[in-house]
């Protein structure tokens, strides 16, 4: 659970512009860690730490842009359904059997 009041207080104290810059920096640091993993430098601890930073920043951005959980969930559902369709088409062509997870259910492609 993210303490949203703490995030709101931090935004108030430091300002939205600074927090937006920090969010961009944190996302860049996560990107850098994923790139290192692709080069063979497996640093799972660092990825988890940067993921946590990005997660916090995303919640700050939600506050700054007044984005609701419902709005995000609507887009998540749309994007997941699109991935299910894309993955299903690929899996049907390859004749493999997979279960694809959706937040609401499992969809099986044969």
Describe the structure in your own words.
With 110 residues, the protein is mainly alpha-helical. The protein is built from four helices and two strands. Strands 1-2 form a two-stranded antiparallel sheet. A hairpin with a 2-residue loop joins strand 1 (98-102) and strand 2 (105-109). Mean pLDDT is 87; it is low at 101-110.
Largest β-sheet summary: 2 strands, antiparallel
Strand line-up across the major sheet: 1-2
Shape summary: flat
Segments where pLDDT lies below 50 for 5+ residues?
Answer: 101-110
Helix content: over 70%
Q: In sequence order, what are the helices and strands, one letter per element?
A: HHHHEE
Number of strands: 2
| N- and C-termini, Cα separation | 38 Å
Cα gyration radius (Å) = 18 Å
Structural class: mainly alpha
Mean pLDDT, rounded to whole units?
A: 87
Beta-strand residue percentage: 5-15%
Tally of helical segments: 4
Name its key features:
mainly alpha; 110 residues; 2 strands; 4 helices; two-stranded antiparallel ribbon
Write the layout of secondary structure elements.
Layout lengths: L3 H11 L1 H23 L5 H21 L4 H26 L3 E5 L2 E5 L1
Antiparallel strand pairs: 1-2
Compact description:
With 110 residues, the chain is mainly α. It contains 4 helices and 2 strands.
